[in-house]
Amino acid sequence: MEMVLFIGIQATGKSSFYLERFFRTHIRISGDMLKTKRRKELLVRACLEGKTPFVVDKMNLTRANRAAYIGPAKEAGFRICGYVFDSDLAAAIQRNARRNSTERIPEPGLRRANKTFEMPFFSEGFDQLFLVRMDGRDGFRVEESRVFEDKNSLDSKQLASAAQFNRQSDRYGKSHILADTQDVELGLRGVLVPSGGTALDVATGGGHTALWLARHGWKVTAGDIAPRMLENAEKLCMEAGFSIETRLFPAEEMPFDDGSFDLLTVRVAPHHFSSPQRFVQETARVLKPGGHFLLIDGTVPDDDPETEEWLHCLEKWRDPSHGRLLSRKAWEDLANESGLKVVRSELQPRKQPDLSWYFETAATPEENRKKVLEAVARASEHIKAALCLENEEGKIVWWWPMMVLLASKAW
User: Fold this and answer.
1) Right CATH number for 2-152 from 3.40.1190.20, 2.40.50.100, 3.30.470.20, 3.40.50.300?
2) With 35 labelled, which of 75, 180, 199, 292 sits at a CA distance of 20 to 30 A?
3) How far is CA 279 from the centre of its chain?
């Protein structure tokens, strides 16, 4: 006895997938067909009482939506399988536009659904979870996935980051500013790839660092707290001809044995971490003796509390999942306290070319955008000088202090 839950926004292929995979074996519970909530409830009850396999062909975007089906199905002794459809918003909008007028969903509805999505976890009651992607040939590619691991260990900050980056994952593609990986190349200068060298890219995001590592001969595992980030990272690498492993986990609790990797990288993410100290301790634990740690992240000027506090408030308004920017000295201290030796740490300011672009990337609420713009307008001359904050051809630009730290673990 099996209940299948489809999970994904509109126009991602759910109904076509049902016809291809489950039409002959499972009853279909579909709002488009049954029209009313009462009819759906009656058919679900009939399937449960009659021990009949069925598919819930709905979006099922939130934990609450899914719980309404999982609880009764579990009580009836059903096995629960979830199929998570690759919810690439831009692609879904294009597919939706090709539908006939009676089936087409208003675009604002698609965008609202995308923002509503909450990642599924095994702890909700799933026995298996699968990722479903369209293969570009009117078919589907299905992979059983372990990325949806238990969320019970996630704290409030981690959950906020997971939700934010899951929603905004499509903004971190090839056009994202982090697609330029020159900082990775400079940061790893002098680090040689050992035979069979293994690398872990933590908080991989769009997968740009993971791809750089794969291209340079590393056997790469990419980790992130957001499942859709991992989907996109894997897709980016596959399109370039490289295979990587993906794992879902918070940076503060890595699901790997001691001494598993020759290299660990993290790039423009630690300011979101719940506990930078715990992250560095975990880094030291999973590195092999002689392994290297590359950290690239925004920082704040040492001994400049005015600029630090201004930048912290600005980032928190722009993206509420932001944690805290640490100074270069703070990161060096954390590395040393965890038994890592700092090889070098450098400041490489990165130009942020357009504040409006950052608003869109983070989906900054309108009221917070106003707060940021007011703070920019009121910034002191000291802050403007420290960050090279200015208006350039109608765009607000600044130079974000970027720290590149390379450390090693003793043999």
Assistant:
1) 3.40.50.300
2) 75
3) 17
